[in-house]
């Protein structure tokens, strides 16, 4: 068993425990045509192939996933189109979220380069798929997948419901996930701008451990956003 396989097993065990814990809570309205058991809304997330081989392990944290119960696999196979012929890997999703992640990670991996020298996101994704080497991790504050077909905004009520169901002050699930991923750099995706309850954010990402990165408008900065 490789080190990455060992960490994948550890992460799955944790997420299985987390899923089992919330499954005992009341049914959830996640945009599906009827309320679901929380276990049926739970989405597994984590790291992409090659993450633990990087000199600097970079973790991106978003708000929620959409229409998926396995964030990493669905992203590789649907968004990056890496199923089947890897030589044809490319971004099929116009979502700027993934374009930003790919460009930011490329800049960090290359020790901070001019924005003009960063290749298009589709080209970056193509090379990642071709070599099956992605090298970053992506998790969400909420593991309840938002299945609404009418609205693409964050379902703040659903996010809060997940964080309440997780009882993080008692279980420490989020911190335990961070311990397994052991990132060198954490970049969050507008979590505070989304009006997520600050008490929940403090349990996930304590303010005393956060730093504000600098940016000169031309170069990507490689300093830690949140020291792990």
Pick out its properties.
alpha/beta; 39% helix; disordered C terminus
Principal-axes shape call: globular
Biggest sheet: strands side by side, in what order? Answer: 1-3-2-4
SSE sequence, one letter per element: HHEEHHHEHHHEH
Unreliable parts:
213-228
Number of strands: 4
* Individual helix count: 9
Radius of gyration: 17 Å
Structural class: alpha/beta
Q: What number is the mean pLDDT?
A: 81
Cα distance spanning the termini: 26 Å
Can you give the helix content as a percent range? 25-40%
Main pleated sheet: 4 strands, mixed
Q: How much of the polypeptide forms β-strand, as a percent range?
A: 5-15%
Layout of SSEs?
Blueprint: H1 3-22, H2 38-41, E1 46-47, E2 58-62, H3 71-79, H4 96-109, H5 121-131, E3 136-140, H6 156-166, H7 168-171, H8 173-181, E4 185-188, H9 198-204
Parallel strand pairs: 2-3, 2-4
Antiparallel strand pairs: 1-3
Helix pairs in contact: 1-8, 4-5
Task: Give an account of the 3D structure.
The chain has helices spanning 3-22, 38-41, 71-79, 96-109, 121-131, 156-166, 168-171, 173-181, 198-204, and strands spanning 46-47, 58-62, 136-140, 185-188. It is α/β, with parallel strands linked by helices and 228 residues long. A four-stranded mixed β-sheet has the order 1-3-2-4, covered by helices on one side. The relative contact order is 0.19.
Write a brief caption for the model.
The chain has 228 residues and is α/β, with parallel strands linked by helices. Helix content is 39%, strand content 7%.
